[in-house]
Design a protein that fits this description.
Elements: E1 24-31, E2 39-45, H1 50-61, E3 69-73, E4 76-79, H2 92-95, E5 102-107, E6 113-123, E7 133-138, H3 148-157, H4 162-180, H5 190-207, H6 216-224, H7 227-231
Antiparallel strand pairs: 1-2, 1-6, 2-7, 3-4, 3-5, 5-6
Length: 236
C-alpha cells in the first residue's frame, strides 16, 4: 500500500519550514515489505533536489544506481525521463513539506523496491557539519536484480533452512578431520570431496542473498567523496 503524502502547506517561519531558510532536513527512509526493517536516516540541505536525494538514498541504502527510479508525491511522479515523469530537479525547499510528511521512492521499476520516506525534522546547519550525511540505519541492502522483496525474503530464509544446516555440518566434519585430526587423506575420497564441494557451493550461493552490509562510516565516506553525485546521473 502506497503511503499517503501530507498535503498540508509547510509550517510557518516560527516552526522552521524547509522553504523559509537553507536548513538541514532530517529524513528517514526504509524498504517496504522487508523484515527486519532495512532503514537509514540522512541529513541533507533543504536546497537538495529530488535527483540529488535519489543519489543520497542509493549510497545510503547500498544500491548501485543502475535502474530507473521515481518519487511519488502529491499525485505527481518525479524521476527518470524514460518514465515520462516530472523533472526531479525540484528542491525540498520548493516542495514545502511539513514535518511528518511521507512520500514514496521507488527503485528498479520492473520489480520495484519501494521505499517509504518521512520528513522527521529540520535542523540548523552545524558549523563543522558535512552534508549530506548518514546518521543512523540498520539492515543489509538486498542484492541488485534478485527478484524484488518477496523473492529476497524467500531466499534469505534459506540461510536458516535444514539444507543450510546440513551443509554446515558437512563442512565442519571435513574440517575437523583435516585440521584437527590431521587426516588430509580424507580429501582423496571421491564421495567426501563431492559432498564438501557441493556444500561449499550451496553455502556461497546462499551468502549472496545476505545483501550488502550496512556501515554508516562507509556510507559517509562515499558521500564525502561525492559518489552520490555520480550515481544521481546514471539513470537520468
Amino acid at each position: 500500500m502506497k503511503p499517503r503524502p501530507n498535503l498540508q502547506a509547510g509550517p510557518s517561519t516560527s516552526t522552521s519550514s524547509a522553504a523559509d531558510a537553507p536548513v538541514i532536513t532530517q529524513i528517514k527512509v526504509w524498504l517496504v515489505g522487508i523484515s527486519p526493517m532495512v532503514w537509514r536516516r540522512v541529513l541533507v540541505p533543504s536546497t537538495c533536489t529530488l535527483r540529488e536525494l535519489h543519489g543520497v538514498f542509493q549510497i545510503a541504502m547500498g544500491w548501485d544506481g543502475v535502474h530507473l527510479y521515481q518519487f511519488s508525491l502529491r499525485a505527481t511522479r518525479y524521476g527518470s525521463l524514460e518514465m515520462a515523469a516530472a523533472s526531479p530537479e525540484v528542491t525540498l525547499a520548493a516542495l514545502r513539506l511539513r514535518k511528518g510528511a511521507r512520500f514514496l521512492y521507488e527503485y528498479d521499476l520492473n520489480i520495484p523496491w519501494r521505499h517509504e520516506v518521512r520528513i522527521e525534522e529540520w535542523r540548523t546547519p552545524a558549523a563543522d557539519g558535512a552534508y549530506p550525511s548518514c546518521t543512523g540505519g540498520s539492515g543489509d541492502c538486498p542484492p541488485e536484480d534478485c527478484g524484488g522483496p518477496a523473492a529476497f525474503m524467500d531466499r534469505r530464509d534459506d540461510l536458516l533452512s535444514t539444507e543450510a544446516l546440513d551443509d554446515l555440518a558437512v563442512m565442519a566434519e571435513v574440517i575437523d578431520e583435516v585440521a584437527v585430526n590431521r587426516r588430509s587423506e580424507v580429501l582423496d575420497d571421491d564421495e567426501t570431496r563431492w559432498r564438501l564441494e557441493g556444500a561449499v557451493a550451496r553455502s556461497e550461493a546462499r551468502l549472496r542473498w545476505e545483501g550488502r552490509p550496512f556501515s554508516r562510516r562507509a556510507v559517509n565516506a562515499r558521500l564525502r567523496q561525492g559518489e552520490h553525485r555520480v550515481v544521481m546521473h546514471q539513470q537520468c
